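Quick look at the format.
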Amino acid sequence: MRHNESLKALIDEAALTYEALARRVNALGRAQSRPMTYDRTSIAHWVRGTRPREPVPDLLCEVFTRRLGRTVDRRDVGMDAARASGRGRAMAPDVASATYPRVPEQRTPALARPATAVSARETAFARAERFFALQGDARGGRSTRPVLSAYLRGTVLGATGDVRPSSVSAPELAHAARTLVLLARACTDMRRFFEAQHILERAAVLAARAGDDAAEAIALRLQGEYALTRGLTALAATHVQHALHVSRRTPAGVRAYVAVQAAETSAVIGDDSQAMDWLDIALRLLAGAPDENLGPFGTYRPAALHFRQACVLRRLGRHDAARTALQVSMEERASYEERPIVLTWVARARLHAEAGQRTEAHDALLRARHLNAQVGSQEAAWSIARLETLLGG
């Protein structure tokens, strides 16, 4: 058995003891509702060449990514597919063969149960969530993150960002969880992905304590999206599977939001058929959703779904269909959704660039850059700059 020199080098670079590394892996496992009891002896075995079971390789990648401030993948930790199997094929057979739940169960969502008295404070909470969600659609994270952080410190979270030790009601916990989700989105727009991931972990825990299935499912789904962005495919699938389970007890809009992420995860894994199945489920769920506004944590707008549909279709190589979905998304956007409109122009430019349509790509980027001058989205600015470099200015 060959020693895993790559893993040992990362441990040394991160200045972690075997015991400290084991604690971090166990903590990430608990955050996914996977109790783990690894210790320094376990780490020693892995360094000597023993391969841990799934999803530990991805958890190790996550630990080192956070610790070192750069993306660390399976190859870096010496646990890539080629090392494990002696072949160069893609990793994650367990993920690809994992059975996702089929059409999410049509249970009566909590928001549709017999009405109970809603306190004035809960009404104020809902109003604040709507306001911050609208601000997130209109402006980039640089504008919204400081306001959200200050608001959280002034409500149920103290100056340290922790729940106050005094008695906190379920509505307060739920509101804290939902506001943290909105804060994570703002951090993502600023490309502060590690901060966003940490915030989402806290949001999921608070939402679970509050019994807020919608907020928990959304937090888990976003964790899956961010893991996918960093190339942690197995971890992304784990988060999505957990989100699918929790979302069974939520409104159709939330289930559609989670289902479309399951579609994108399946597309990345290479299961095109499953990706299209999940995309169809998401579209049918939203088409059958009641025509009522349940707020940002119960309603999923068609324009947003069509944008994600385009992302999935692009990953599947169906560029013409992706362009059509982007056009539908753009037509259905409200004028105040300035940031999503900018990102849609960026997505259009990317599709044109990949098709070799340089003039159309430059035109779309020009529109995106002009609009983003008012919005200030750092995510959009980064994507625009990257595409301009790809196109040679």
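Next, a different chain entirely:
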Amino acid sequence: MPEIIKIFFFFSHILNESSYIFPETRLQQIFEEREATTQELNTLAQAHFLRPKNAERMSNEAIQHYKKLCSGLSKQQKEKIINLFYNLEYIASIYPKRNTNPDIILIQGSTVPNMRERLMFLAKNVEEGIIHLKPETQIVFLVGERPLFSTETKEILINPSPYLKDPNWHIPNILPHDEREASKLIWAQLKLPLSLKEKKPIFIEATKQQDLARAQTMDCVQLWLQKMTPQDHQKVLMISNNPYIQYQKNVTELGIAKAGFNKLFDVEGAGRSFDINDQDIDITIGILMDTLARVLYVENQLQEIRIQKET
């Protein structure tokens, strides 16, 4: 929490406009004492840091929001914010605990390049003996209804470079037009360790809600939980990539808690790093702040569930 308040402090010139949310004296107290509740931080984050509704992360509308958010920051301040996000583990790769032997491996859906990265991150950790696959270990793709972006071209679909193709894979007559179809192509296309390739993955294919542009992480998690009836305690390894690992881990835990299964699952999040070197720093910070706002929203819900169960 102290790291998050330090990040918020850099945006105090924006947050000070929140007197309609909190009394001005309370805002001053938060910044002076470096203490706030998750509920308070969430309220501020939802008001100021989320990208516009239904705007994709790299849309022009979202980028304008990021630029405006960072317009009052110096270069030195921006670099300090990035360092704080390193401390929060939103940037560097997060590796699974050594010799982990999960019962379930969840691979979160995303763009075609990201899904490849996530699957190959898993493959590398299997090859290096960090992840041990048991005969009963399930590989589950959590994918949703989303038309492929214009950047997910035919060339991107058929060329998995820098990764190797499975020698038995051939270009299909009809290429995917949707994230759900693309996840199946990626699994068949990539050369994977035998212990992984011999698994038959489960594809959880969520549909989008009526007023949204695409299916959300929670839609996928809830559909997965509807399709299973856990009997015993199970270890779940969730594969994403930064800066989304904490957020998607939290959403998975929230879905589990809402389903009443929180005593039956332990969830660990892992994934590759957030590549920030070739990206405009304002866009990087904007994406990080948007993600932090979503993390706080989910953490606030998790806290509310815990409080309800204690009363």
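Residues 15 and 121 are 38 Å apart (CA to CA).

See the schema section for token definitions.
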